[in-house]
Write a structure and sequence with these properties.
single chain, 3-stranded antiparallel sheet, Metal Binding Protein, Guanine Nucleotide Exchange Factor, Chain A
Length: about 200
Amino acid sequence: MMTDPKSSNSDSSKVTRRAFLGSALVIGGGLYIFSMRKTHTDEIQSAEAATTPQEVTIVEFTDAGERKGTAKVPKVVKSEAEWSKQLTPNAVDITRHDDTEMAFTGKYWNEHEKGLYRCICCGTALFDSATKFESGTGWPSFYQPIAEENVAASNDRSFGMQRNAVSCKRCDAHLGHVFDDGPKPTGLRYCMNSASLNFIKHA
């Protein structure tokens, strides 16, 4: 029995379209379920992290910059809503979402008074004005932290660049980045966001 070629092609085209649409629905549904599972897993992990007590070891300093010694302190973990109540929207974007303020806009880039720079989120001592230098970048820059124990560094590959991000050891607040083009004695440049810091002027 002869079949109409046009009819055969049409039926084949319909089957192909059906198969394609069916596959697309299956794949799309699978991706949706996977993304929902991943989100749910992330929520569980975040909840566990928030309820699991953690301690970190930092070096404590007086507002005058005097070293008091090391101490084990609870890690500061807060919800987005809690950070939003405590910080300005700009500080939330920078410290909790790794944003960066525009050069020459932060309140400390041109600060020359003597004092101590603490974390805006948890008050941990981070930098001393004695190590601050004029980098010409428009951000407050230091050649070393007040104590290595008080900061943490991690790889940052955002924007197609390889950088070392710097955060507060106690609350994970994003502070800025560290580069190897600073002055002696360290050769480092801790390029910080003013919005991540709270300057305490020496009396």
